[in-house]
Known about the structure:
Layout: H1 2-24, E1 33-38, H2 48-56, E2 60-65, E3 74-75, E4 78-79, E5 83-86, H3 100-108, E6 112-116, H4 123-131, E7 134-136, E8 139-143, E9 147-149, E10 161-168, E11 170-171, H5 179-183, E12 190-192, E13 197-199, E14 206-211, E15 216-220, E16 244-250, E17 256-260, H6 268-271, H7 282-293, E18 297-309, E19 319-320, E20 324-335, E21 338-341, E22 348-353, E23 355-361, E24 363-366, E25 374-381, E26 387-395, E27 403-412, H8 427-449, H9 457-462, H10 466-480
Parallel strand pairs: 1-2, 1-5, 5-6, 6-17, 19-27
Antiparallel strand pairs: 3-4, 7-13, 8-15, 9-10, 10-12, 11-14, 14-16, 16-17, 18-20, 20-21, 20-25, 22-23, 22-26, 24-25, 26-27
Helix pairs in contact: 3-4
Protein name: Dolichyl-diphosphooligosaccharide--protein glycosyltransferase subunit WBP1
Keywords: Endoplasmic reticulum, Membrane, Signal, Transferase, Transmembrane, Transmembrane helix
Organism: Smittium culicis
Amino acid sequence: xxVVGICSVRFVAFALSAIYGALSANxxxxxxxxxxxxxxxxxxxxxxxxxxxxxxxDYDVSIKANTDSDLKLLERGxxxxxxxxxxxxxxxxxxxxxxxxxxxxxxxxxxxxxxxMGPSFSPLNDNISSEFGLSFQNLALVDHINYYxxxxxxxxxxxxxxxxxxxxxxxxxxxxxxxxFSQDSKKAQIFYNGIPHTIKRKSPLxxxxxxxxxxxxxxxxxxxxxxxxxxxLASDSLSGSNAKxxxxxxxxxxxxxxxxxxxxxxxxxxxxxxxxxxxxxxEHFSQDLTKWAFQETGVLKADNLHHHKxxxxxxxxxxxxxxxITYGLDISIYDGGKWKPYxxxxxxxxxxxxDPYIRTNLDPSVSKNSKTATTFSKExxxxxxxxxxxxxxxxxxxxxxxxxxxxxxxxxxxRHDQFPRFLTQAYPYYTSSxxxxxxxxxxxxxxxxxxxxxxxxxxQASSSSPSSKGKSHSGKKDKSN
Length: 481
């Protein structure tokens, strides 16, 4: 009786813990452990609103200084944290010697990262950004049109007029990354006080999502003057949209990294900017940015892969050449903690044997198996080529995780009794054979039944002329004489 009571208590405790875990689970598909690295623990008060934003989404947030000896990203190849946020642009070291290769290994292991640069960035941070294909410039952004000008002192913590605190609405790729701004009819302004960067190499894995306005340019930090309209430009000066502010990177394993050139844009002061004449939304911007970086949005999955011959439902392990088959799969997208049907008309299927023999678009339709997925399918004829083929759906789009679905299906030739009796392309050969046979039969018939061909040798001798006989007798008499 006592054992039963203990077991029941343990079961109730386990059930309650499971329910609590389900209720408190955050929306990230990769985990809820977040590490924020600061130059000093005391600096966390500058980012308290940003930290609260993460905690409100049920993230387990740890804050460490860059000099903390316990700072580790990987332990024996396993992730110590699911997500890391670096807000330490001037730091010259992390932990016990974490370098750009350790950061790269962290991302390759599936970790997500938000990395902030800023003025006077350290060589270590420069190497880390360069490892991801970005080049930050230690130059200040200046704008004499789109800059912060708080004449009414609505934000006392900021300078009332600072031409290097700019605002911009040049946003790109907002459909799956900046979802708040793609749905809002009014385009909000983002405040930024930091440095620009450029993308060193073109890559489908790198996407710029925020750039400077057309009137912005860069100058050396030492030559900034809040009230001067004539600053000398640097030789490597950037202007307008060439000055990138925020760039996202999605690795081949779908791990995500975000690089920004301004830790201030995540600070309390920039979250609190509020003017009635404009819409400023650094808070919404940072929320959308971290949701995407931590894989709360824009994640695809494929289910219910199926293929069968036309008019059948059974999935066969192999098919024959020129069979008409139906191939399809269900695709869902994760957004806001829910799986939803993915809407697109550019999902392609390739049938390959070294080179693609068939490349065709899959048609979307309502899934019969799930309310949270869209079925993409196509009916087509297999190639007139036998061998081992690979059926590939390799879907890559900016802002969403890449989807790779592969399965190997052999395509066999026809058996000897499955070939057609007569081939159209062989009709000339059939005709010549019949003509040859017909000619042979006609000649044989004529030889056998014709009276001219049917004469015996004796009949031919008797039909010889008398003059020829006389000549032969006279020849005999001459010989006897």
